[in-house]
Design a protein that fits this description.
70 residues; globular; mainly alpha; single chain
Length: 70
Amino acid sequence: MMPLSTQSNFADPDSAYRQIVEAHRGLNDAQSVALDAALVLVLANHIGDADVLREAIALAKRRLPESPAR
């Protein structure tokens, strides 16, 4: 099993961020959500390790903002 890398692996992280932001330009909310879902599936397949995916999902869930109280 390869460990989940949480350090930046990009030579230019700002460029990578801009690519993601630009990919959403001109999309409506539904298209933006669909793009994110497709990108997650493509990258999860690229990783190809269920344990790493499980760890990444857990990390992402911990980073979600709290729901506002009603």
